[in-house]
Amino acid sequence: MGFLIRLVIGALALWITTLVVPGIELTGRSALENALTVLVVAFIFGVVNAVLKPIIHVVGCVFYVLTLGLFALVVNALLFLLTDWIAHLFDLPFSIDGFFPAFYGAILMAVVSWLIGVVWPGRSER
Predict the structure, then answer these.
(1) What is the pLDDT along the chain (126 residues), one digit of tens a residue?
(2) CA 66 to chain centre
(3) 101, 24 contact by CB (below 8 A)
(4) C-alpha closest to that of 45 among 9, 21, 72, 20
(5) Would you say the C-alpha torsion 88, 94, 96, 101 has a positive or negative sign?
(6) SS3 sequence of the chain
(7) Angle at CA 31, nearest 5°, toward 8 and 1?
(8) 20 and 108 Cβ atoms separated by less than 8 Å
(9) CA-CA distance, 109 to 22, in Å (whole number)?
(10) Rounded to whole angstroms, what are the CA distances from 7 to 4, 66, 117?
(11) d(CA 33, CA 28)
């Protein structure tokens, strides 16, 4: 059940990001297609983060320390661009126009995901 809640939170954050950040677009023909695309892209982003982020943390530990953690923002943007590339492999109607939309989008997704997670009912029962 926790996986589905995290997926929905990620999908909501991604949807809000597509509305706010210019350069990140859903180009589906219908609202249903866009909703399914958001769910699939949120799943892809979750898998990319779960698999690659720990490896990048270990390998890039020095960069995190030297930049006082700011390197994490660049890593998140690059992982978001990788998610866009994987989405294109599956012909999903989702696109990111470059590094800076991915950079701002990754920051906004992290903030929105955190905010939704804070106000989501029942999360404090664990």
Answers:
(1) 778 888 888 899 999 999 999 999 998 899 999 999 999 999 999 999 999 988 988 888 888 888 888 888 999 999 999 999 999 999 999 999 999 999 999 999 989 988 988 887 665 554
(2) 25
(3) yes
(4) 9
(5) negative
(6) CHHHHHHHHHHHHHHHHHHHCCCEEECCCCHHHHHHHHHHHHHHHHHHHHHHHHHHHHHCHHHHHHCCCCHHHHHHHHHHHHHHHHHHHCCCCEEECCHHHHHHHHHHHHHHHHHHHHHCCCHHHC
(7) 15
(8) yes
(9) 14
(10) 5, 33, 11
(11) 6
First to last CA, the chain: 13
To which residue do tokens 């597509």 refer?
A: 18
Instruction: Round to whole Å and give the CA distance between 53 and 102.
Output: 16
Q: Which residue has the tokens 């720990």?
A: 54
> What amino acid is encoded at 47 in this protein?
V
